[in-house]
Amino acid sequence: MLFFAFTIAIATSLALLGLLCWSLAMPDQRVWPPPRGKADWRFWLVWLLIGLLIVSAIFVALLDFGSLGLDGWPWRAIGALLVLLGNALAWWGVAVLGAATTTGLAGDLVTDGPYRFTRNPQYLGDIVILIGFVVLANSWLALCPSLVTIASAVAAPFAEEGWLEKRFGAAYQAYKRRVPRFFGPL
Predict the structure, then answer these.
(1) Among 105, 117, 120, 129, who pairs with 86 as Cys (CB 3.0-4.6 Å)?
(2) Residue ranges per structural domain of the chain
């Protein structure tokens, strides 16, 4: 069961990263953001992969719990705190952006809430969640797909920026100059 869950977690995380890289390299044939919203097979493919990744990563973490060697309550507390903080940031972003826009459907340019500080609070929150998840799970095997998924969370804004520039023009350009992609100079 562990091998099966790990294989799915690795395969889906690599597939997501590959699709984001494809979208970055071939913007006219992009997969993300989906060109035609929910009517597009790419929308459903991305969300199917994300769902499979989440479920399989949780199984991996449960079945391989404790293999990383981060024993003791301080590590569990740090992991839980990171998961909570990451969720707070990501869900704040969802609340301000809206569920439809969050899932890759078109919406308005949002520059308030957490978007005042970072252009990608949801991806930043996801990265913090993944780090916390690995620490909390204390699992070597959960680390592998989590690192690939973190790479996806870093790549996704690059895949989206061209689409956002075409969609919002000068307003997005001005927003890019004011607000960092993630935080500070990043």
Answers:
(1) 129
(2) 2-178
pLDDT tens-place string over residues 57-113 = 999 999 999 999 998 999 999 999 999 999 999 999 999 999 889 888 878 999 999
Per-residue HEC secondary structure of the chain comes to: CHHHHHHHHHHHHHHHHHHHHHHHHCHHHCCCCCCCHHHCHHHHHHHHHHHHHHHHHHHHHHHCCCCCCCCCHHHHHHHHHHHHHHHHHHHHHHHHHCHHHHCCCCCCCCCCHHHHCCCCHHHHHHHHHHHHHHHHHCCHHHHHHHHHHHHHHHHHHHHHHHHHHHHHCHHHHHHHHHCCCCCCCC
Which residues have C-beta within 8 Å of that of residue 39, sequence separation ≥ 6?
A: none
Q: Which residue has the tokens 């009517």?
A: 39
CA distance linking residue 186 with residue 183, whole number of Å: 5
pLDDT number for residue 186 = 66
Q: Which band of pLDDT confidence, cut at 50, 70 and 90, is reported for residue 122?
A: very high
What is the CA 48 to chain-centroid distance, rounded? 14
* Distance separating alpha carbons of residues 70 and 143, to the nearest angstrom: 12
Q: Domain 2-178, what architecture?
A: Up-down Bundle (1.20)
Question: Which pTM does this prediction carry?
Answer: 0.93
